[in-house]
Amino acid sequence: MEQLESEIAEWRAYVAASPAVNGHDVDELEAHLRDQIAAFDAAGLTPDEAFLVAVKRMGRLDDVSREFAREHSGRLWRQLVLSDGDGQERTDTRWVETLVFATAVAVTVQVARLAAGFPGQESPWLFRNASMLVLPFLAGYFARRRRLTSRDWLGVAVAVAVAAVVVNVYPYSEGSSTELLVAAHLPVALWFVVAYPYMDGTVRSHERRMDFVRFTGEWLIYYVLIALGGGVLMGLTAAILEPAGIDVERVAEWVLPLGAAGAVIVAAWLVESKQQVVENMAPVLTMIFTPLFAAMLIIAAVVYALTGLGGAFDRELLAVFDALMVVVLGLVLYGMSARDPSQAPGWMDRIQLVAVGSALVLDLMVVGAMLTRIGELGFTPNRTAALGLNLVLLVNLAGTAWLSARFIAGRGAFNRLERWQTSYLPVLGAWAATVVVVLPPLFAFT
User: Fold this and answer.
1) Taking a C-beta distance cutoff of 8 angstroms, is the pair 62, 29 a contact?
2) How far apart are CA 78 and CA 8, in angstroms?
3) pLDDT score at 240
4) Which residues contact 23 (CB under 8 A, 6 or more apart)?
């Protein structure tokens, strides 16, 4: 039964990722699939046979199930579901809607810059609100694509409004640490607001949470690719226009923020419409970078443990290790989202466990150094935020290491590891919201 549940979970995740269906549709389709499986099981078929035949039946009714069969071309259900004429790629043609949102967010950013004093010295207000000017548009983009109800729209709007009030009403001191912390953590908090419309309001669904993890990784890949392409374009443009006496730097000051803002929406559209292409990239990227990060983390853990550097973390080094822990967590999550849950433990799972274990050792050193520093110098906004983040990551890494070891040893299912990560996502969002909302008044906005 565990294997059957894993196959159903994989089918559901695939269907739910389609922009053509919402969470309620997925629930209905899954209920229909389970009814079919139960009927075939009662007729004497094995669970695997019942699942395959049920998918075939679903494939007759639903294009997404047919896509699922084509995606997993190496499996038996391809023979059962595919029929002649199914080989054409589906493409998302809702590019006009995407263009409207991308233009709207670009114009909003430019108007905000002008209001903040551009082209002169821009105010800290703009830096603090940078993510507030962009990510609500992404939330609205998904809310429209998923055809959210008015109640869901209202929920997203309230979350954004609360964040806007908190960020702009608090009386921050000039150049305060709390203002910088808010600027750094607000994008994370808002990204979890984006998750709500992306998941069509089905925030309790672990499959949809993993879909959002997968979307986040793929969105980041596309955004970086767009940024690299934009950089090449700007470089060539500068080389061509400079001989004509045009101030290329001034042009870039106007154009780059527009492109950076619009690319947030365009990257999301590319993930949605070209999903199959990037899903092929995800396992490759994971296969390349997981061993490299594992090797780097092992070397770092051994060097810092043997040389005693673990007790000499200064502020800059702590910040570097914080960033490293976040990257490791992101790599683990993205690799997990790209993994076939039905596969048996392999060498990549063992390498990932080594990476997580090494990161856990380093994070323990970082937390120890932070506690020592706080004991000597007391709490500050930055130390509190850093300590909280590392404790959150420490618990996550410990749980991941434990469940990964059990999975590799054959004492646990991969689904439990997935559930641990998807259940932990709200903790990460809650900590980011805490830094934005609670820390500034706790430290008198200094």
Assistant:
1) yes
2) 16
3) 81
4) 16, 199, 200, 201, 202, 205, 208
